[in-house]
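The freezer alarm interrupted the setup, so I double-checked each line after restarting. Inputs confirmed:
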Amino acid sequence: MLVISQISKRYGDSPALASTDLQVSTGETLVLIGPSGCGKSTLLRLIAGLIQPDAGSITFEGSQLSSENIFQIRQRMGYVIQEGGLFPHLSVRDNVTVMARYLRRDARWIDSRLNELTQLVQLPAEMLKRFPAELSGGQRQRVSLMRALMLEPDLLLLDEPLGALDPMIRYELQQELKAIFSQLCKTVIMVTHDIAEAAFFGQTLVLMRDGHIIQAGPFKELAQTPAEPFVERFISAQREPMAQLIEALK
Amino acid sequence: MLVISQISKRYGDSPALASTDLQVSTGETLVLIGPSGCGKSTLLRLIAGLIQPDAGSITFEGSQLSSENIFQIRQRMGYVIQEGGLFPHLSVRDNVTVMARYLRRDARWIDSRLNELTQLVQLPAEMLKRFPAELSGGQRQRVSLMRALMLEPDLLLLDEPLGALDPMIRYELQQELKAIFSQLCKTVIMVTHDIAEAAFFGQTLVLMRDGHIIQAGPFKELAQTPAEPFVERFISAQREPMAQLIEALK
Amino acid sequence: MITKQRIGVVLLGFFALLISTVSSIVAGTEKPLSITVGSKAFTESVILGEMLKHLAGQTGIATHHQRELGGSRVLWNALLSGEIDAYPEYNGTLLQEILVKENLKTEAELKQALTERGLRMTTPLGFNNTYALGMKAELAERFKIHTISDLKNHPEFVLGFSNEFMDRADGWPGLQQRYQLPQKKVRGLDHNLAYRGINSGSLQAIDLYATDAEIAYYKLRTLEDDLNYFPVYNAVILYRADLEQRAPEVVVMFNQLAGSIDALTMSKMNFQVKQNNEPESTVAAGFLQQTLNMDVDYQVQTVWQRFVKHSGEHLLLVGISLSAAIIFAVPLGILAAHNERLGSIVLSVAGIVQTIPALALFVFMIPLLGIGGPPAIMALFLYSLLPIIRNTYAGIKDIPPAIIESAQALGLPSRARLRIVELPLATRAILAGIKTSAVINVGTASLSALIGAGGYGQPILTGIRLDNIGLILEGAIPAAVLALLVQALFELIERGLLPKGLRIKALGAR
Amino acid sequence: MITKQRIGVVLLGFFALLISTVSSIVAGTEKPLSITVGSKAFTESVILGEMLKHLAGQTGIATHHQRELGGSRVLWNALLSGEIDAYPEYNGTLLQEILVKENLKTEAELKQALTERGLRMTTPLGFNNTYALGMKAELAERFKIHTISDLKNHPEFVLGFSNEFMDRADGWPGLQQRYQLPQKKVRGLDHNLAYRGINSGSLQAIDLYATDAEIAYYKLRTLEDDLNYFPVYNAVILYRADLEQRAPEVVVMFNQLAGSIDALTMSKMNFQVKQNNEPESTVAAGFLQQTLNMDVDYQVQTVWQRFVKHSGEHLLLVGISLSAAIIFAVPLGILAAHNERLGSIVLSVAGIVQTIPALALFVFMIPLLGIGGPPAIMALFLYSLLPIIRNTYAGIKDIPPAIIESAQALGLPSRARLRIVELPLATRAILAGIKTSAVINVGTASLSALIGAGGYGQPILTGIRLDNIGLILEGAIPAAVLALLVQALFELIERGLLPKGLRIKALGAR
Ligand SMILES: Nc1ncnc2c1ncn2[C@@H]1O[C@H](COP(=O)(O)OP(=O)(O)OP(=O)(O)O)[C@@H](O)[C@H]1O
Ligand SMILES: Nc1ncnc2c1ncn2[C@@H]1O[C@H](COP(=O)(O)OP(=O)(O)OP(=O)(O)O)[C@@H](O)[C@H]1O
Ligand SMILES: [Mg+2]
Ligand SMILES: [Mg+2]
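Predicted 3D structure, all chains:
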C-alpha cells in the first residue's frame, strides 16, 4: 500500500530524518515509537505530503506522491495531527464534517456517521455545537480523531491520538479502534509514547532515534532480540513504574 | 498554603465544576485525576485566576485571590498549560526567560538557570534559539515545563506536563522532578492521566468526575477502600494492558 | 498555478465588464436628446434657470438644471463647449465683462458677436437688474415722484445709500452730478438698515438693485432713471445656436419668456424664495402658470428633497464603487498573499493609484468617461482598493501556519481551503480594511461634486464657495452620519460573517 | 481602569503639546517684518515678480514670492486683504477689467481710485504689453517703416494675423479702418506659423503682443501705433500704501524699476525663460545687475531645485503628520481593543473626521492655524488616524485567546502583556494600517498646496490649472515614487519589527 524509499528531510542544517525505507501493506498497523524529537511526526507529515522530502520518494498504491495527485490521495487518508489542528472558527460538528460536506456527501449519511463517531469516542452530543475553545483537552483530541475517521479513509496517520485521554476512555477506545482497524482492513501508522499501547496495536513496531530507524518488527522481537542496548532500555522504561503500580493495586 | 472553599464554575448552562473544597499545604504534591472533561483544568485555571469562579473563594497563603493581588501571586506560581501556550513570536530562550527579564533578574542568574533547566529536561542547547513552530511536540512540552520552573515558584500547577514525552525521558523527568519538589519543598498540583505517574508523585490523589471530587486521599486508600465502584474501575483501567506488557517483557 | 491564472482571467473579465457597464452608462444609447440649462449661484439666476427647465420640460424632452455653477465665466465657457445649452444672463454682463474687449456698442453688435461664437440670445425678458433709487410707493405717489429727476424738487429728502454706492464714482457722486440733485442729508449705511429706515420713514429714498426681494416686501417704487445714468443690465436667455436645429420647440418655449417678467415680478419671486423659503422650482412654476397659463409638472426641491437627492447620489456613488472595490480588492489581496512577487506588484500599483490626487485623476478620466457619475465612481473605486487589498493580504498572512497545515492535511484543495478556512479566519482583518475603505469612500465621494456627480459634496462645495457654514453642514453632517451608518452596517455584517468561534474571548482577562 | 485613565491623560497632554507646537510655528515670534510679492501664472509676470523679490530682498527684509497665483482677481483681492504686499499689473487690466465699473478715464483718476483702496502704483515700468504689428527689423529698415501708418505705402505686403485678431472687431477690421490700410493679401493663421512665415519672408507683417519672446528671437521691429488704435497696457507695480510706512526702503527699490524696462528688453527676458529655459530668477537678477548695477544674491530654481524644494515640503508634511498619527493612533487602537465602549466611540469619531472633505477641513482650520504647513499637517494627521486605529484594534482582537491566557498565567501585568505579547503579535496588522495611512497621506499631502503648504501638489495644481500634463507629472511622479519609497521603508521596518517566529511559513503549502 505504502512504500517509502530513501526518504530524508533536514530543517536548515539539522537533519530531522535520515535516509529511511519503510513499507506498509494494506491492513497492517504500524506503530512508530522513539524519543521525543526523533522524527516520528516528520515522517507522518512527509507521508501526508505536508512537507517535501529532500530526497527519496513515497509511493501510495503504486503511484508516487506529487503535487498533482496529493489532494486526491489525502482524501483517502485520515490524519490526527499531534497538536489537534481543529479549526477555531468552526463548531465541533463542522470541524468533523467539513470535508464530507465539501465532497457533497449525502446529508443523512453525514448525520448518521457523525452519530456513530460521537458514540465511539464517547463525546456528549451537546458538545457538537461547541467551538474548540470551549472543549477540554481530551475532548478536543477526541474531536480530532472523529475528524480523521469521518470519511472512512483507507490509510490512517495517527500522531499520539490518545495521549490526552484518561485511562478509562483510552482503554475502551483502544479496544474499539483495534476492532475497527481489523474489521475494515485499515492501514494504520500510529505514533504513541505508551509502550503498552504500541504493543497492543502494533503488528509491527518501528523504533526510531535521531531520524534513523533502529529496529522494526513485532513487539516480541524488539523485546527479546533488541538490535541495540538502547532498544531494550527504551522498551522497558515503563516497566518499573508499572510494576510498582501493579504491586500497589494488588 | 492554598485553601479552596465552596468554589464552583459553569460555562453557559453547563456546569464545569460543582461546589468544591480542597486544601493543599506547603510542600504537598496533590495529583488530580479523572475522566476527560471532568473539570481538572478548570480547577487549575481558577487557582491561577485565569477565570473567575461563580461562587466560593480561593485563599493563597492567607490572602484571598482578587484582581488586586493576582499579578503578585501569579509570579509565585508556575503553570504548565495543557496546550503548552508558548508564544509563537518568541524563541525558546525568550519564551522561558520572558518573565525573568520582565522582573529584571540578573542576566547571569538567568543564563545559569536556563542552563540548569535545559539540562533537566534534556533539551539540546541549540534548540534555545528556535521558535516554537520549529520544535517537535515533546520538545515544546519540555519548554513549557522549563518556563513554569524558571522563577523557582512556590506553587506549581502542572496540567499533564509530561503527556507528550517518550517513556524514557518521562521516567527520568519524573524522578528528577520528584526530587526537586521534595528538596525545595514545592507545593504542586498536577494533572495526569497516567495512574502510575499519579501514584508515584501524589501524596494525595484527588479523583474527580463531572465537576465533583469523588474521593481524595493517598493512592493506597483509593486502591484499597474505593468510595465508589467507579474509583476502582478508574484506578485499575490501566492494569490490564500493563500486565500484558509486563508479561510480554518477561 | 493554473488556479492563479484562472483567477487572473476572471478578474480581467470583471474589469472589462465594469468598464463597459460604466461607459455604456456614460454613452447611453447614442446620447438621446436632452437639454441642460445652467444658472449662477444666486437666487434670481436659479429661479430663471428653473423656468428654463420647466419650459424645456414642457416639450417632453428630458431636461436637466445644473444649478449654482461658479460665476459668469464658468457658465459662458460651459455654454460655448456645449456642456449646457442655455442659461440666463444680463446683457450688461456680456458687454461690460465677458466681451468687454470687443468694445461692443449696440445690441446688433452684441448679437453679431454672439452669432460668431455659435450663440443666440432672446430679446430681453423685461427687467433691468441694475442700480436704482427706490422710495416708499405711498410716499412717491403722494409727491407724484416717478423719475429720479423728480427728486430735484425735494431737497429736504433724507437719502440713505449703501457705503459702496456712496463711495464709487459711478455711484452717488456721478448720480448727483448728472441729475444735479440738491439733497444734502445723505447717509451711508448698511443696506439692510437702509430698508428699515425707508420703511420707518426716516429715509425718503435709498439705492437698491431693481429686482431686490425687499422692493416687493416693503412696497417700494423704483424711480425711473430718466437720464440713463445707470448701465443697463437686461436679463436675457443665452442659448446655443445649434439648439434651433436640435430642439426648435425648446427655443420657441424660451422665447415666450421674452418681455414677460418686469422688475417687480422678479422682485416678488426673489422675495418668495428668500424670505418665504419657497423652493425656486415652485416659484418658477407659479410664474409660468400665471403668466403663460402653463401647467408645469415639477418637483419641488425642499431641503428634505435636496437631502434625499444628494443622499441618493451619494449612496449610488459609494454603493457601486465600494462594491466593485470589494469584488476586486479581496481577490487581489488573496492573490498577493499567495504569491509574494505578484503581491508586491499589486500592492505597489494600488499604492501609486492612491497617491494620484482626486483632481488630477478626474482630469485624466474626463476624456475617457466624461463628467458626472462614471468618472467619480471610477475614481472612488480606485481609491477604495488599497486598504482592502492590504488588509486581506495581512489577514491571510496572519493565520497560524498550524491551521493552514491542518486544512491541507484534510485534503482541502487550495480554493476550498481559501473559502472554508483562510477567508473566515481573515474576516476581521478584511472587514477592518473594508470599513476603512468605506469611510474614506464616503468622504472622498464629496469631492465628486467637482465633476458634477452630485452627492453631499454639492452643498459642501456651494457652502465653501459662498462661505456659508450652514450649507457646508447640510452636506458634512449627512456625510458623517452616512460614514457612521456604513460602519455600523459592516459591524452588522461582521456580526454575521465573523465566525462565532473567533468571538470567544480570553476568559476573565484581568 | 486606572491604567486606561492614565493613558487618556497622556494622550490629552500629547494633543495639547502638538497643538501648541503647531500654533507656535504659525504665530512665530510676533510676526517679524516680511514682504510677500505675488505674480500671475504667466512668464512675464513671474519674471517681474522675481525682480520685486530680489529688489525687496536687497533691503535685507525677508521676502517671499507667491508665484503663479490664479488670475488678476486673485492677486487683486490678495493685495487688498494684505496677503501679498505687491505685484506687477497692467494699467489696462485695471481700467478695463478690475475697475471697469468706475469708468476711469485718466491716470489721475486711476491713482485716485487706487488710493481710495489703500493701494499705490509706481509709474509705468516702460513697456506697453498690448497688441502690435511687427515686421522683420531688416525689412522694416530697408523700407524705412517705423509706424503702422508707414504701411499704407506698401499695398503689396502680405499680412498674417492670428484668427482671433482677424475676427475681433477691435482687431484687424478696426485697425484697417482707422489706418485705412490698403493691403488685400491678409491671411488668418496660427500664431506660431505666422512667426515662421515672417521669418521665411512669405509674410511681411504680423500681429503680436509687444513683449512676445519671439520678437527678440526673430529680430522683429514692432511698429509704432501712431494713431493710438490699440489700448494701452502699461506695466506697473501695484503695492499696498501701508508699505510706505512699514518698509519705505522697499518702495524706493520698487520705484527704481520705473521706466527701466522697454518692450524689447522684456521680450528678451521672456525669450530667455521660454526658449532657453533659464529660471525666471536668474533672468530677473541678470536684468537688475545690468540695468541697476545691483548685485543680487538669489537662488536659481531649476527643475531639480524645485523638485528638491517640493520634496522637502512634502516630506515634512508627511513625516510630521504621519509620525504624529502613529503616536496617537496606535494607543487609541489599543484602547479601543481593550474597552469595547470606548472603542466604538474612538472608531466613530475617527470615521467622522475622515469624511470631512479636505477643502472643508481647511476652511474650518484656517481661522485656528492660518495657512501654510500647520493646517495641512493637522489635516493630514487627522486623515491618517483611522486606518491605523482600526488595524491596531483588529490586530489585537485577532490574537488567539489561548496566547493571551498564557501571558496572563505567566503573571505579566496588562501593560507588559501589551508590549511583550499583544503588540508583537499584532505587528503585521498594525503595519498594514500604517502603510495604508502612509500612502493616503502622501496622496492627500498633494492637496496641501491649496492652502499654500507647497509640496508636490504645487506643480500638480499649476498643471491642472494650466492644463499642462508635463507639470502635473512633475508632481504626480515624485508623489507616486514617494509612496513606493514610504511603503518600502515600512516593509523594511516590518522586516525589523515583525517577530521572526511569525514569519515561519506553513511548510510546503501546496
Ligand atoms: N520547522 C522546523 N524547523 C527546524 N527543526 C524542526 C522543525 N520541525 C521539526 N524540527 C526538528 O526536527 C526533529 C524531528 O521532529 P519531529 O516533530 O518529527 O519529532 P517527533 O519524533 O514527532 O517528536 P515528539 O515525540 O516530541 O513529537 C526535532 O528535533 C525537531 O526539533
Ligand atoms: N469555554 C468553555 N465553554 C463551555 N464549556 C467549557 C469551556 N471550557 C471548558 N468547558 C467544559 O467544561 C468541562 C470541564 O473542562 P476541563 O477543561 O476542566 O476538563 P478536564 O478535566 O481538564 O478534561 P481533560 O482531561 O480532557 O483536559 C468540559 O466538559 C468542557 O467541555
Ligand atoms: Mg511528534
Ligand atoms: Mg484538561
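Quick read of the result. Residues 176 and 182 of chain D are 8 Å apart (CA to CA).
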